[in-house]
Amino acid sequence: MKTIVVSDQVRYPRMTTEELRECFLADGLCRPGEIRLSYVDLDRAVVGFAAPVSAPLNLTSSPELRAEYFTERRELGVLNIGGAGTVRVGDESYDLENLDLVYIGRGNPEIQFETKDSGNPAVFYMLSYPAHAAYPVSVVRRAEAQPTEIGAAATSNRRTIYKYIHMGGVKSCQLVMGVTHLHEGSTWNTMPAHTHMRRSELYLYFDVAENARVFHLMGPPEETRHIVVADREVVISPGWSIHAGVGTQAYKFCWGMGGENQDYADMDPVDLKTMR
What we know:
Mean pLDDT: 95
Radius of gyration: 18 Å
Strand content: 35-45%
Number of strands: 24
Largest sheet: 7 strands, mixed
CATH superfamily: Jelly Rolls
């Protein structure tokens, strides 16, 4: 488990491209046949992938967590972005198709990931935050997630937002998760931009074509930078930073948040004319 220490907004303006990537990008986490995780000091998030192929993979604790098992004091959201697979929690099994999600609450010692077809393996994206309360394991199918279409083709940001873990859906301690689909011909996400100091956010960009990239915008509205992101890479966004982006073609991203407020609409909008 790699530890990522996020920079503050004082050091941020003087950082090089490589330093920005070191502090705000989690990459190299999706490896076939492995579980790879990063521990982020921001709100103590853990992010990573389980990518089983020929054999099941067991999620265990790491020395960084100082816990007997992974969810001893944590909750976990698992989104399948690959082929069909199974997540086992204790004695229960949960079959997940592409873009199905399972929420696993605090206090589940045994978690295992398995793929159904090694020719089209499952890829499980994981996001975890500390939890002070335990909520039951819940599955959200892609068809059950609440879709909201926003934006327009004329502004190149027509997109559909699917909410999985949120105040009106699956109950959690502090974790919020969902997926945004960019429509064909649209490339901008989260524009006009916003910030929210009440919670941090992590963006997993996926279904990004091999030769495509997403330019993720970050930083205070008056001092923006960008990070060039490839498929299955994660950008870490602190509360003081905007989080928006534009791709060279359409893509999807999973947004996940943790903090003191689970209200999805709790945002501080940024006037586009004030951005620099």
